[in-house]
Every structure is written in structure tokens, then in C-alpha cells.
């Protein structure tokens, strides 16, 4: 939405202000200053970059699988050792992953799994049994909160991978898998695209970043290869949006670095054709259009399946006092 006041004009980002901005202020200020290694010449020479649409032979996937996961820390805990060692911090967490199958007949839930674990760096950590649930003991690299959270996120990612592999083995059909978030830890999965809807870092130099702002709905940037702590192909795509702000409706997609250029172009064209039909709508989702309808619905279901946080917290308190 664009508002006019006297001679000045400004744009209002459609992304709900309760969430982090789709493109953060820090990323915009540091445009072109990223330390990522970039190869901008994968599909077009860097000097020839322009918005591109799917090629004449492109087709959307016959079946699109959308995978996502959620996590919640139910309580911070201390793991005690009966032999007298100092208590070690940890977290008790619930997490879940699911897959939505989008095909000609519509969207349906294909798989879902809910797990609960207690994460700690303590060698003496053991499972926690409560009246409401059992939390499996899983290790973390150290006792810091960042590492405990990272250990939890690794399990969410691993659960998504397990569900995707199992479902594809059962279905036995050619499909395209879209995972919500970066592709890291899932680059080995065939025909898989990572989908990033929030931009914390601006990776492209100014001339190529200007192409992102110039995208029309249903268009994408040329593909580029980037390396940070890991390598992947990437491109930006714009979903349908009524906003005129430069990055409104823009998402970044990722694919494995080992793919040939023709393979990643086929993936990029296919997902670019599929995404507009799945775009979220602003009167239903505050993170529309980037938060795709299947992702929003799956997240809501998964959070419900995590259970009542108050009940689980009371159960953990009860178990600790026993």
C-alpha cells in the first residue's frame, strides 16, 4: 500500500510488524557487503542479469511435497548427577515435522511426527519421564543456550528429512520437495528446493540486487552459486503481491551445489510456476504472500500437535519434585 501525504510518499511493507521484516534494515544497509563467495554467471553473465520467467518447455511439478517443522522449549532444566557432579543446564523441548502433498486433486496431509527430547551436554543426562510425556535424552555440544537451541534445530531438520525420505519411498512417484527454510543439512535429497521467506542478509551486489527489486510476480532472478560455510545454488522469486515496496513478496530459493546448470534451471522454473498458486493471502496470514498456504496450515496443525505447553510444564515440574 502506498500513502500520499503532501509531497512526500512512503510505502508500507505488507509483512506484519509483529514479525521480523521480510528484508531486515541491517541487510538493506549492508547490501553488497556480504562475505559470501558468489558465482553470478551460472545462468546469465552477471552483466546481463534481468528478471526471467520460466522457459517455454517448463512445467510445474506434478506433485509438490511441502515439508516443515516446528519447535518449542517446554522448560529449562538442570540435569543432576547422583555421583555428585555439578548440575548441568539443559532444555526440555517438543518438536514436530510434517509433509503436505499438493497435487491435481488438492492438498492433503501426507505425514506427521511429534517428538519430545531433553537436550544437555551432561554425560549423565537421561530421559525424563513425566505424567504427560517422556522426553528422550539427546546430547548437545556444550551447555550454552545457543548450542542447546542448535541441537534442537538439528533434530527438527533430521525429522523432516526422515519423513521426506520415508514418504517418497512409500509413494514411489516423481515429485518435487519444498522445505521451509535453508537447504542446509538436506542438500543430499533429490529434487529438493529450500524456501527462505525472511532475508537476514543481502547476498547480491547492487547491480544484481536491483534485479530483485525489478521482479514482477511470477518472475525470478537468474541462478547464482554462493558459498558461506556451505555451498548452494540460489535464486530470488517474487510472489503475487499488491505492495509496491522493493522486496515485497520476494523469497529466496536454494538447490544443491552439485547440480548441473540445466538441472537447477529446470528446478527453478518448475518451482517458479508452482509458487504463485500457493502464495498466502494477507487477510488470512500476516506473513503473506511469502508464507505459503500449505506452510501456514501445516505450522498451525503441528503447533496444535505439540500439546498444551502449560500441561507439559506442570508435568515437568511434578516429575522434578518426585
From TrEMBL:
**InterPro entries, per this entry?**
RNaseH-like_sf
User: What is this protein identified as?
Assistant: NurA domain-containing protein
Species: Spongiactinospora rosea
Amino acid at each position: 500500500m502506498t500513502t500520499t501525504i503532501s509531497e512526500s510518499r512512503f510505502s508500507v511493507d505488507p509483512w506484519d510488524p509483529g514479525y521480523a521484516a521480510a528484508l531486515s534494515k541491517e541487510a538493506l544497509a549492508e547490501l553488497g557487503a556480504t562475505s559470501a563467495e558468489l558465482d553470478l554467471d551460472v545462468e546469465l553473465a552477471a552483466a546481463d542479469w534481468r528478471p526471467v520467467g520460466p522457459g517455454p518447455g517448463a512445467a510445474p511439478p506434478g506433485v509438490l511435497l511441502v515439508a516443515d517443522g516446528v519447535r518449542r522449549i517446554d522448560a529449562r532444566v538442570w540435569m543432576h548427577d547422583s555421583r555428585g557432579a555439578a548440575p548441568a543446564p539443559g532444555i526440555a523441548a517438543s518438536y514436530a515435522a510434517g509433509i503436505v502433498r499438493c497435487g491435481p486433486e488438492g492438498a492433503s496431509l501426507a505425514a506427521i511426527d511429534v517428538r519430545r527430547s531433553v537436550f544437555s551436554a551432561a554425560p549423565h543426562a537421561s530421559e525424563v519421564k513425566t505424567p504427560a510425556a517422556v522426553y528422550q535424552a539427546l546430547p548437545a555440544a556444550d551447555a550454552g543456550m545457543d548450542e542447546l537451541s542448535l541441537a534442537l534445530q538439528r533434530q527438527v531438520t533430521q525429522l523432516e528429512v526422515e519423513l521426506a525420505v520415508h514418504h517418497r519411498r512409500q509413494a514411489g512417484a516423481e515429485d518435487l520437495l519444498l522445505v521451509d527454510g535453508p537447504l542446509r543439512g538436506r542438500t543430499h535429497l533429490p529434487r529438493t528446493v529450500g524456501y527462505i521467506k525472511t532475508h537476514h542478509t543481502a547476498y547480491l551486489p547492487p547491480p544484481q540486487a536491483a534485479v530483485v527489486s525489478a521482479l514482477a510476480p511470477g518472475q525470478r532472478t537468474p541462478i547464482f552459486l554462493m558459498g558461506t560455510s556451505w555451498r548452494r545454488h540460489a535464486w530470488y522469486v517474487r510472489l503475487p503481491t499488491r505492495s509496491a515496496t522493493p522486496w515485497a513478496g520476494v523469497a529466496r530459493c536454494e538447490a544443491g551445489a552439485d547440480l548441473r546448470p540445466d538441472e537447477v534451471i529446470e528446478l527453478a522454473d518448475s518451482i517458479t510456476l508452482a509458487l504463485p498458486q500457493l502464495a498466502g493471502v494477507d487477510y488470512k496470514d500476516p506473513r503473506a504472500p511469502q508464507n505459503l498456504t500449505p506452510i501456514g496450515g501445516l505450522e498451525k496443525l503441528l503447533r496444535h500437535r505439540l500439546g498444551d505447553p502449560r500441561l507439559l510444564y506442570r508435568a515437568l515440574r511434578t516429575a522434578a519434585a518426585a
